[in-house]
Write a structure and sequence with these properties.
Blueprint (H helix, E strand, L loop, with lengths): L3 H7 L4 H9 L11 E6 L9 H12 L3 E5 H9 L4 H10 L3 E6 L9 H20 L4 E4 L10 H18 L2 E5 L10 H11 L6 E2 L2 H6 L17 E4 L26 H10 L4 E5 L11 H18 L1
Parallel strand pairs: 1-2, 1-8, 2-3, 4-5, 5-6, 7-8
């Protein structure tokens, strides 16, 4: 019976080739992303259910986690509640506090305003840490002029240092309709200038469309760069430049290439939190639980389809 060595010799390859081919390990397949599902409470903020209501609705609808707004946390605590009691409410609901939404002006050019913004971020990060949340959105809030992206990268590096100090890591966010920080290319440059292993970005279906980024750039991203991805959709009946947050619709109900987006997120690897973030005023007039449940069902159906 011919051996593997004999076959290699018969086609002109020597024993060295046999040893070499045996020594080269097969390339393991890249691990695919795993998805968790999250409710950003903006989706039902028009119904004003309150912080306890948000948690109850998210839990009953079947979400894994929530994105809460810092202003709601502060209001809850100002009413005489404690951070410890809020942490217990989140835990008792069986939810993970995945990320928080805030608007501290940490990226602005004005030194005094930026100092205040960094102090605000530290205060908010410490609050989030006490609640078991390890992430916070970091948009270019307060910026009023074209950005020097190199300086913005240095400022994001300082914010990442603050994140490591507090245990709450900033997720660099861009807004599609914001003239100074609206494109995937800009956010990637700022993250690159920071030159930090903990840099993370927070993309959004609507913002990628509204700011003109498109979706092909997602194929370029390392999976570790994206932990939270905001889910929504846009309609084709409104010109891109005229679309507003209120025009967002359920994922899959608009014109976004959702299967492509989710396939690219899956292929890039790393765990992903898909968070439903809508501001649709029509939905705000509907039953909050039904809105939350409908959004979750649509996200799960889209993920199942890829």
């Amino acid at each position: 019976m011919s051996t593997r060595r004999d076959i290699l010799k018969s086609i002109g390859l020597g024993a060295g080739a046999a040893i070499l081919t045996s020594a080269i390990p097969a390339t393991p397949p890249k691990a695919k992303s795993e998805f968790r599902f999250c409710l950003n409470t903006s989706t039902i903020m028009g119904q004003k259910p309150g912080l306890k209501g948000y948690l109850d609705i998210a839990a009953r609808a079947g979400y894994d986690g929530v994105e809460l707004w810092i202003r709601d946390l502060e209001e809850f605590i100002s009413q005489g509640n404690t951070a410890a009691s809020l942490k217990k409410l989140i835990s008792d609901a069986g939810l993970t506090f995945e990320n928080a939404i805030g608007f501290a002006p940490w990226m602005v050019d004005d030194d005094a305003k930026r100092k205040v913004g960094m102090e605000q971020m530290e205060k908010e990060m410490n609050l989030l840490a006490s609640l078991g949340c390890t992430r916070v959105a970091a948009p270019a809030a307060g910026v009023t002029a074209p950005l020097d992206l190199f300086k913005a990268g240095e400022r994001y590096k300082a914010l990442l240092d603050l994140g490591r100090k507090t245990g709450v890591m900033p997720q660099l966010e861009f807004w599609g309709a914001f003239p100074y920080f609206h494109h995937l290319g800009q956010v990637l440059m700022v993250a690159a200038v920071a030159n930090d292993k903990d840099a993370r970005i927070l993309p959004d279906v609507y913002h990628l469309f509204r700011g003109g980024s498109g979706y092909e750039g997602l194929k370029m991203l390392n999976g570790n760069l994206v932990e939270i991805f905001h889910m929504n959709d846009f309609v084709s009946s409104i010109p891109r430049e005229k679309q507003e947050d209120k025009d967002r619709v359920y994922p899959g109900d608009g014109a976004a290439p959702m299967k492509q987006i989710l396939t690219d997120l899956k292929n890039m690897g790393g765990p992903k939190v898909l968070s439903l973030e809508l501001f649709n005023q029509t939905y705000w007039k509907e039953d909050a639980f039904q809105v939350a449940k409908t959004g979750l069902d649509k996200m799960k159906a889209l993920v199942k389809s890829i």
